[in-house]
Amino acid sequence: MAVQLGLVAAFQGPHNAIRIAYPEQQLGEGASGVGIVSAVSTVGVLCGGWIASRRFALDRLRPLPGPPLVAVVGAVGISAVLLPVAVSSYALYFVFMLLFETVFMVFNLHVVTATDERHAAALLGFRSTLLGSSTLAGLAAASLLLTRLSVAWSTVAVVSAIAALSCLLSRRRQSTTNG
To answer: How far is residue 161's CA from residue 163's CA, in Å, rounded to a whole number?
Structure first.
């Protein structure tokens, strides 16, 4: 689950790269659009954190496999950036950030609560390194692609790669465990 946590954290990288480019390039909204995306994403993260702290959300999300959750977060993020209508796009971006934070917090809770107390210090140190590294990797990939591609195609490429990697690593882990 730590790997899935790192992969969902990687969405923070593209978010940081596209949150300025997408309202300007994709929606033609300029600086006001950048402000709206900042506000929408902040409120989405707050709401996602609140949802993740509710028992009903934990009971429904915990049993679900990580790759589909990562893929859903990614699909909503891509949809938000591809949608050319500002109000609808911002609404979907809110949902993207809400889902991102909810899934991130659920995965994080799973990692922390599943850790044996004897290994907690090492795992929590690894987790911190993993989260920072995966966010940086997502940011670097999105930023590099933004120098060559539109914000829409950059987002599709990075977010799809994160979701695909989530599925691939999960399958690999399952085949190793079952094999």
So the answer is: 5
Q: How far apart are CA 114 and CA 1, in angstroms?
A: 9
Distance CA 71, CA 74 (A): 5
User: Can you tell me the distance from the alpha carbon of 64 to that of 45, in angstroms, rounded to the nearest whole number?
Assistant: 21
How large is the greatest C-alpha to C-alpha distance in the chain, in angstroms? 54
With tokens 């120098």, the residue in question is: 147
Per-residue model confidence as pLDDT tens digits over 83-125: 999 999 999 999 999 999 999 998 888 888 888 888 888 888 8
Burial 21-44 (b: 16+ CB within 10 A, else e): bbbebbbebeeebbebbeebbeeb
Quick one: which of 157, 173, 136 has its CA closest to 74? 157
- The reported pTM is 0.90
